[in-house]
Design goal:
Helix content: 25-40%
Structural class: alpha/beta
Distance between the termini: 24 Å
Low-confidence stretches: 1-9, 18-53, 80-87, 271-277
Radius of gyration: 28 Å
Largest sheet: 18 strands, mixed
Oligomer: single chain
């Protein structure tokens, strides 16, 4: 059960789950989920003898104490294990019933839950609800959103975190976002959007979106001007920057105030040379300071646009060819560079990998923190060819013989931190590693000139072999490693 807490501001919270998932006391308060300073209230809803579903909301408590004007945050979430609130139309119906019962504000004959009840009855009867039934449900979602916006006029942050919410719940969330448009400063939407919408959002500072392939045509249109922090997760298909093109006549999309950009997924960066003929936008990031990219496509023009003179931190994971294109840009103003490789390196790629990474890490003089992370097989044989003179941090996640690590210090002379995750090694390899660590002085008569100060070592292996090797590691390896790496101050072992 996760905990949520938000900085001394009231929050309306809607959550869903089954009875057996919810840990509640006799007063209906969920003890493990806290929205400071008001807890969830549990409202039980029993559905025709099925597994009971609860909708947890603190709306009633906030209304009872007259705190509506103090509410600044609105959160929709589901329990991770079952996700009833996302999948069950009945839970949405229950929530809207709560809104109507507490707040009213509608003609007496208006029943917001009736369209959803009718829809559910038609589905249970094996019928396909028609357009009229769908339109009535959409209208009810909008009416419920209007009631919430009226009762909680000062909401500035919205969070919608669900795996597969019903389309009518999505409609409710979209209407809320549009209704709060002018006041929103933070918008987190980790649901697959089914409805296109536009946010002028003049005060929006932080945007966090999860974009699925099925939602490509339903992306919102958002003005980028005020944004300072963008986090995008894109799954399975390329994403277009056109969602940030408010002015369709302009050739440029300018992120004038963006400081942090994080993108996980496949992003197509437009070519500046083709901007006029292909109607691709030219991107501008004049204030970008921190950039996090993972598995992104990147053209030469895209790299030039996104790596600006203000950039202080660059984190990239993916193709080493794309990494090379990024690092061809001036890096002199960086404080931190982190490059991550998680895909296997095939023999025919090894030479290209060594050549490109040598060029990259020979350009990093003056950068305080230069980190290379390799979490895959196929890289063991490249060690002899590397030349990374300014690398300060190295993380390795494959089975590499320790003797190779001991002999590579001349190739990474400024390395101060080393992480080693030994994965999928055989019993014999683990025993050999243990013996090597306990007999360093026999194999290496002189301490090395290494600058390594901190070492983290984790071994993933079966329990029986670990039990036999663990005492040997701790009994002799630590002192021997400190002898061979004389600058070593901190060592952490973890047997998993």
């Amino acid at each position: 059960m996760e905990k949520c807490s938000y900085n001394d501001e009231e929050a309306v919270t809607v959550s869903g789950g089954s009875d057996e998932e919810a840990d509640t006391d006799s007063g209906g308060t969920n003890r493990e989920s806290t929205i400071s300073p008001i807890n969830f209230l549990g409202i039980p809803v029993v559905l025709d003898g099925k597994v009971p579903i609860r909708v947890y909301t603190n709306i009633k408590l906030i209304e009872t104490f007259g705190l509506e004007s103090t509410v600044k945050q609105l959160l929709f979430r589901e329990y991770r294990s079952r996700g009833f609130f996302g999948h069950q139309l009945e839970s949405l119906t229950s929530f809207i019933s709560i809104i109507q019962t507490l707040f009213g504000g509608l003609p007496e004959e208006t029943n917001l839950t009736e369209p959803f009840t009718k829809w559910h009855e038609l589905e249970n009867a094996g019928s396909v609800p028609g357009n009229d039934a769908q339109s009535r449900c959409y209208a009810a979602s909008k009416a419920a959103a209007d009631v919430l916006i009226h009762k909680f006029p000062n909401v500035s942050s919205m969070f919608a975190v669900m795996t597969d919410p019903h389309e009518f719940l999505q409609k409710l969330i979209v209407e809320l976002a549009v209704g709060y448009d002018k006041k929103l400063t933070k918008f987190v939407c980790e649901i697959p959007p089914m409805f296109p919408y536009t946010l002028s959002a003049p005060n929006l500072v932080e945007l966090d979106l999860k974009i699925l392939s099925s939602s490509h045509q339903n992306l919102p249109t958002i003005c980028p001007r005020s944004l300072r922090n963008i986090n995008l997760v894109v799954e399975r298909q390329p994403f277009s920057w056109d969602m940030f093109r408010i002015d369709t006549e302009s050739k440029t999309i300018a992120f004038d105030n963006l400081v942090v950009l994080s993108i996980l997924g496949t992003i197509q960066y437009p070519s500046i040379d083709d901007a006029v003929t292909a109607n691709n936008p030219v991107l501008r990031f004049p204030k970008l300071e921190r950039l996090y990219l993972s598995d992104c496509n990147l053209t030469k023009e895209g790299a030039q646009a996104i790596v600006g003179h203000r950039l202080k931190q660059l984190h990239f994971g993916g193709s080493f060819i794309v990494a090379s294109e990024l690092c061809k840009q001036p890096l002199r103003n960086l404080d931190k560079l982190v490059l991550v490789w998680e895909e296997s390196c095939y023999p025919e790629e090894a030479e290209g990998f060594v050549s490109m990474t040598n060029k990259i890490f020979n350009k990093t003089e003056g950068i305080e923190h230069v980190h290379c992370k390799i979490y895959s097989d196929g890289y063991t044989e490249i060690v002899n060819g590397i030349d990374w003179p300014y690398l300060t941090h190295l993380s390795l996640g494959f089975s590499m013989p320790f003797n190779v690590l001991f002999e590579m210090h001349s190739k990474v002379p400024n390395l101060v931190h080393l992480d080693i995750l030994i994965i999928n090694c055989s019993d014999n390899e683990l025993i050999e590693t243990t013996e090597l660590l306990t007999n360093i002085k026999k194999n290496y008569p002189m301490p090395s000139s290494s600058k390594i100060e901190t070492l983290y070592l984790a071994v993933y292996h079966d329990e029986e072999c670990l039990e036999s090797c663990c005492p040997m590691l701790f009994s002799g390896a630590i002192e021997n490693l400190k002898w061979y790496w004389p600058q070593l101050k901190d060592i952490e072992f973890q047997m998993i």
